[in-house]
Amino acid sequence: MTDTSLSLDEIRLRLNELDDQLLSLLSQRRALSIEVAKSKISTKKPVRDAKREQQLLVKLINSGKEHYNLDAQYITKLFHTIIEDSVLLQQTYLQDLANPQDTTQHARVAFLGSKGSYSHLATRDYFSRKHTELTEINCHQFRDITDTVEAGQADFGVLPIENTSSGSINEVYDLLQHTTLYIVGEITYPIEHSLLTRREVPLESIRELYSHPQPHQQCSEFLRHLKDVELRSCLSTADAMKTVQSLDRDDVAAIGSAASGKLYGLQPIQTHISNQSENYTRFIVVARKPVDVSLQIPAKTTLIMSTKQEVGSLVSSLLVLQRYGINMTKLESRPIMGNPWEEMFYVDLQAHLDSPEMQQALVELTALTTHLKVLGSYPIENVKPTAIQLR
């Protein structure tokens, strides 16, 4: 219990000391997580052990309640973050061993928009997990990203592919039909839209609103209630913020991240304006060469395929996946340019490309389809929280 006779400065000093101790302990725990990964190399055990994680959380919750007066929700939230970090550390370690030619401390990465765009934020988040320093390459269009990587001017490209509110980003799916690149990673990034202006102004004074078309869709319910506002499309949310900064008028606003708005001297006059409170965008990472995925890591494999113009041809292909117990997490169809009424199907599967089940499924799918291509097999880095029942 805190000694109430201490002055505020003394209490803050003690808090600082405790924070330093926490940082030291977290660092030690991270080091032990790597040792766990090393021990799993010889045993071939998977990175995640759901039973072990559940037992750990229950033990911590009981101990926290009995000895430290800490509630279950607090402990669960804290250790979900710690477990997620441990899982990602172990996955990165095993992936580096599986791809020694790709281990680097520096990478050139192409993404959409300027500094502060959601693509830029997602890029930094993804590569910070890899402890990789970046040379950032701003691109104006999605095609510029793939062209830059294909030309060898960037090592990786980051592309948004779907959003929980506005759905699939068709332009990116269409690019994947023709690119020679492979998907080597993914990240799901939270999108928190705000209405940003140069100064604090009344909402009803806004006459022009700048953003990328995707945020316009994702905030359509909020925008529907605005009167006499003209929507202006920009290459990215960062470019929208730059435009509002340069115009320096009280009747213009941008949609984007409030944190990024500070880079351009903008402030939020309305926050949380997305149609859905749980608004996430999934980004894929592309490169010129595929990666190998350790079998100890959960993986996703993405295919594109076209089926014969016959009754039940798509169903027959999907039944192959069912027969081998392969879970499909995404099925997207897009028209094939130059072939009216024909569709290309994009399929995301929770499976390792090198697993016996996936290899046999590919053999059968090749016989059933008119075109089949593996776009990539890559680690699943969206770590789901350990599920336990709280009493």
From TrEMBL:
PROSITE patterns: ACT (PS51671), CHORISMATE_MUT_2 (PS51168), PREPHENATE_DEHYDR_1 (PS00857), PREPHENATE_DEHYDR_2 (PS00858), PREPHENATE_DEHYDR_3 (PS51171). Residues 302-379 form the ACT domain. One of its GO terms (molecular function) is prephenate dehydratase activity. Its EC number is 4.2.1.51, 5.4.99.5. SMART domains: CM_2. Residues 8-35 form a coiled coil. Keywords: Amino-acid biosynthesis, Aromatic amino acid biosynthesis, Coiled coil, Cytoplasm, Isomerase, Lyase, Multifunctional enzyme, Phenylalanine biosynthesis. This is Bifunctional chorismate mutase/prephenate dehydratase.
